[in-house]
Specification:
This protein has 250 residues and is mostly helical. It has helices at residues 10-28, 32-38, 85-110, 115-126, 131-136, 138-148, 182-193, 229-232, 241-249, and strands at 47-50, 56-59, 210-212, 219-221. The strands form 2 sheets. It has a two-stranded antiparallel sheet with strand order 1-2. It has a two-stranded antiparallel sheet with strand order 3-4. Helix 1 packs antiparallel against helix 3 (85-110) and helix 1 runs parallel beside helix 4. The radius of gyration is 20 Å and the shape is globular. The two termini are 40 Å apart. It is found in: Nucleus. Residues 143-192 are annotated as: Disordered. One of its GO terms (cellular component) is nucleus. Residues 180-192 have a biased composition (Acidic residues).
Length: 250
């Protein structure tokens, strides 16, 4: 249907799942303004599709019956103006998670995955945050609650942005704590290492540049929101694409 190889092994199905998931997350976070505009309630029943190459598309459902692949939730555009935007996006995210699972296990059934293969596929899928968790920040909230018990508020003060680090350390926001500040360094590491990128949903990596939104307090890869370490040096208060778009529509 999409002119791409059909996945046949557990690893191939999981890679297909990850690509589609990344596309859906992009639509609901980084590209949320574009997605919002395309979901016009005046149009016919629309679906949100994610593709293995990490792209997304809002389109009408396929006409063939039965479809080649399970179809996403139908008519996501009709509820857009009837509820709060964050609630609508959360609803679309939940249905997107359901669709991703149905596509993955459709491939599993089609190519005769046995009990052990299905279990392995589910475990691989279960190890990454859901679209809903990324879009709503649920994963980060759970991490924050655990970190708050260790008084991690210090990492959310003036050092929120990775621009604190020296020019020679611009690869990532994680800063090695001096020996005499080992305790405070551990507290900060807990908060950082528990972070999930609000755009792509991937976990924290020590060799990557990250930045935190001062409004929703979600972390993002610099490359996902097109912010470089040099650019971060001049930002007093950073707002992620989602928060910036919300403010523009108010």
């Amino acid at each position: 249907m999409e002119g791409i190889p059909i996945p046949r092994t557990v690893e191939e199905v999981f890679n297909d799942f990850k690509g589609r998931r990344a596309g859906l997350i992009k639509a609901l976070t980084v590209d949320v303004e574009k997605f919002y505009q395309q979901c016009d309630p005046e149009k016919e029943n629309l679906c949100l599709y994610g593709f293995p190459n990490e792209t997304w598309e809002v389109n009408l459902p396929v006409e063939e019956v039965p479809p080649e692949l399970p179809e996403p939730a139908l008519g996501i555009n009709f509820a857009r103006d009837g509820m709060q935007e964050k609630d609508w996006l959360s609803l679309v995210a939940v249905h997107s998670d359901s669709w991703l699972l149905s596509v993955a296990f459709y491939f599993g059934a089609r190519f005769g995955f046995g009990k052990n293969e299905r279990k392995r596929l589910f475990q691989m899928i279960n190890d990454v945050p859901t679209v809903f968790e990324v879009v709503t920040g649920a994963v980060k909230q759970v991490k924050d609650q655990a970190a708050s018990q260790n008084n991690s508020s210090k990492s959310k003060s003036s050092g929120r942005m990775q621009s604190r680090q020296s020019d020679s350390e611009h690869k990532g926001f994680k800063i090695s704590a001096p020996k005499d500040e080992e305790e405070s360094g551990e507290e900060e590491d807990d908060d950082e290492q528990g972070a999930i990128c609000g755009a792509c949903g991937e976990s924290y990596g020590a060799d990557e540049f990250w930045i935190c939104c001062d409004v929703c307090e979600r972390w993002f890869h610099g490359k996902c929101v097109k912010i470089t370490p040099a650019k971060a040096e001049h930002i007093k208060q950073y707002k992620c694409p989602t928060c910036s778009n919300k403010r523009a529509r108010v």
